[in-house]
Each structure stands twice: as structure tokens, then as C-alpha cells.
Design a protein that fits this description.
- By secondary structure, this protein is an alpha/beta fold.
- The chain has one domain: Rossmann fold.
- It has ten helices and ten strands.
- Helix 7 links the parallel strand 7 and strand 8.
- The radius of gyration is 18 Å and the shape is globular.
């Protein structure tokens, strides 16, 4: 069953075709990796799927509904959630408070945060559940500006999970991380595998090869190959355009 289906998607900036008749399908429960060289159009494609950019032509089908013309916030309400290369958490708040805000938002509570989140048993219980799933329980009461980049990325993932997504768009979740942080985030994503549908944009091929059920390769705005790891890594067009001897 397809969670996301992209049909002939196009977006240009001046003379540059950032996405050029892109076709892509993400199945329920899979981690689908999107890879390609710098400037290939990966982030532009993610922005189009999320609704931050509108396409010039083509369709985006999400859970059997055409969402091509609806704004980003309505896509998020339908369960299409993204994280960013640059962390967007509240650095002056604790880990618990950040995740609780996402739980509150999903439940439709008002944002009288300090009056309601800590005392509302349902919100507190769900927040603690997401902290446990993402391995953040031990640092729940630490203010986020004291944390590592990897820990902040895990908080973003916890916040995404708290919104009860049908699809998560992960844009470079290990970018700029130390090796230990990268290992932590990779382990977290591996634990989520099968329970969530994920479209993963990632440069680290070790991360991609260890996590992805299928891989799509984007080069100059076009998908040149899609398939399982063994198929993609031996594809001569992919080797020539991107992977080389990696």
C-alpha cells in the first residue's frame, strides 16, 4: 500500500529544473532513502512534498488524496510531518517540554503550556512514552541548549512521532554530527523501521545502506533509479553519476 505517490512533479528556478518529471512512491512502513549529489534537487523535492513549495506541474498523492494544492499546515494535519537539517526545537525549554508541546498540538489543546502539560496526566504519559521510544528519558529535564546536535535531532524525531504521522520526511538527520551522535540517530531510526513510513534524505551512505528498504537516486532533478540496495548500488548509471567507487 502506497502512503505517498508523486507523479511527474516539476519545479524550476529560472532556467534550472530542480525537479524534472519526478515519479516516486513510498510504501507503508518502509524507509525509502532519497540520495543524490549536492544540487540534485533533494531538498526542493522534500519542500514540495511538505507544501513549502508548490509544483509547476504534476501531482502529490498522500494516503489516496491529491494534496498538490493544499498548504503545508493542512498537509501536516493530515499526518505528513517533516524534520529539518537545522534543528527547530525550542532551545530554552527542556526536552520534556518540547515533546509535550507536540503532544498538546496533536490533541488540540491550547498552548497554556506550563498550566496544562505538566499536570495533564494523558499528555504527560504520552510525552514520557515518546521520550522512551527515542531514548531521551534520561535527559528529559535538561534544557535543550545544553545538548549535543545529535540529541537535538532525536528530540525533533520525538516531536515528529508525537504528532502521530502517517509519513515522516527526514531531511539530512545525521548531517554535521559526530560519529557517536550519528550512531545514536541511526539506531533510533532502525528501531522505528516497519512501524513508521519514512522518506529519508541522507548523504551518509553507511546510514542509507543500513536503513533503507528501497533507494531512489536523484540527479539533476530526475530520478535515475529506484529499487532495493543490491539493485541500486550495482546500477551502472548510479555508479557513473553518484556512487562511483563508494
Amino acid at each position: 500500500m502506497s502512503v505517498l505517490k508523486i507523479e511527474e512533479l516539476c519545479k524550476s528556478f529560472g532556467q534550472i529544473k530542480a525537479t524534472d518529471k519526478v515519479n516516486l512512491c513510498v510504501e507503508k512502513g518502509e524507509i525509502h532513502a532519497l540520495i543524490g549529489p549536492n544540487g540534485a534537487g533533494k531538498t526542493t523535492l522534500i519542500n514540495q512534498i511538505a507544501g513549502d513549495f508548490f509544483q509547476e506541474s504534476g501531482k502529490i498523492i498522500f494516503c489516496d488524496h491529491d494534496i498538490s494544492k493544499i498548504p503545508a499546515y493542512k498537509r501536516a494535519l493530515r499526518g505528513l510531518v517533516r524534520t529539518f537539517q537545522i534543528s527547530s526545537i525550542f532551545n530554552n525549554m527542556t526536552v520534556f517540554e518540547n515533546v509535550a508541546l507536540s503532544v498538546q498540538a496533536k490533541k488540540g489543546h491550547s498552548f497554556r503550556f506550563f498550566k496544562s502539560a505538566g499536570s495533564n496526566i494523558d499528555i504527560k504519559t504520552k510525552t514520557l512514552d515518546y521520550l522512551e521510544v527515542t531514548g531521551l528519558t534520561d535527559i528529559a529535564n535538561i534544557v535543550c541548549n545544553q545538548l549535543s546536535y545529535g540529541e537535538k535531532n532525536k528530540i525533533e524525531i520525538a516531536m515528529a512521532l508525537a504528532s502521530e504521522p502517517k509519513l515522516i520526511l527526514l531531511d539530512e538527520p545525521t548531517s554535521g554530527m559526530s560519529l557517536s551522535d550519528c550512531i545514536q540517530v541511526s539506531k533510533l531510526l532502525k528501531n522505528l523501521k516497519g512501524n513508521y513510513s519514512i522518506l529519508l534524505v541522507e548523504h551518509d551512505m553507511d546510514v542509507v545502506f543500513s536503513l533503507a528498504d528501497r533507494i531512489s537516486v536523484l540527479v539533476y532533478g530526475r530520478i535515475i533509479a529506484t529499487g532495493p540496495l543490491s539493485e541500486v548500488r550495482s546500477n551502472p548509471h548510479v555508479l557513473e553519476a553518484y556512487l562511483g567507487d563508494k
